[in-house]
Design goal:
This protein is α/β, with parallel strands linked by helices. The chain contains five helices and three strands. The protein has a three-stranded parallel sheet, covered by helices on one side. The protein binds S-adenosylmethionine.
Length: 111
């Protein structure tokens, strides 16, 4: 599914994410703390599998891949094509637990 919403993201947001740094953010020391905490918070609210999860603003796919490995059917949406490409590569690297769907889209217009 591809969103047909064509409102542009602000240039400064696009320029920031096109630097490509987002894929490394959770590897920094503070990022590792964030990742651990976010996973803990998500886990508190997850239904048991099988279930469908939407990761909107999912970036390079860290949480989407983690959820897919747990057996969720995950759909990742992000407006930055680079992030969706990176998430697709991460999904392909865990071929037994692929993310079900990865697409360019905008949280302001979900279908
Ligand atoms: C700080 S990153 C977080 C990525 C990932 N959720 C994580 O926690 O590692 C924010 C993400 O939101 C995305 N984003 C920015 N504007 C958005 C919008 N309007 N709709 C959906 N996602 C958006 C960015 O492309 C980026 O991937």
């Amino acid at each position: 599914m591809i969103s047909d919403y064509d409102e542009k993201l602000p240039n400064e947001i696009v320029a920031h994410y096109e630097q490509g740094d987002e894929i490394q953010r959770l590897s920094s020391s503070l990022g590792q703390l964030e990742e651990t905490r976010i996973r803990e918070l998500i886990t508190r609210h997850l239904p048991s599998t099988p279930a469908v999860a939407y990761d909107v603003g999912g970036g390079p796919g860290n949480y989407a891949c983690w959820l897919a490995r747990q057996g969720y059917e995950v759909h990742l949406v992000d407006p930055v094509p680079l992030h969706v490409e990176q998430a697709a590569a991460a999904s392909q690297a865990q071929s037994d637990y692929p993310v079900a769907e990865l697409c360019v889209g905008d949280a302001r217009h979900l279908w």
